[in-house]
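Repro:
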Amino acid sequence: MTNPQSLEGGTVYLEGAVCYLFGGTGSFMLLGINHHLLLMAVVKPDLIGTAIRSAPAALVMEGVNGGLQDTAGFAFMFGKIKCGDLHVDG
């Protein structure tokens, strides 16, 4: 990626987890969505497809865990990413 600031804008974040003694979690994030389209999609859900197609990047994360736990959950969130000062080593 040559320009990290291209990821600025709206984001849609999906997260899920299932655990019982051992478990797993997964997250999916769309980055750099046109924030005007994302706000309009909150008001008029027909526009969510257009907003999602404007995302230049996707981030997928997953993990496993263990321990005494009993949980299951899912989250669907909207947000915004703003880049501040960027420092690049090298």
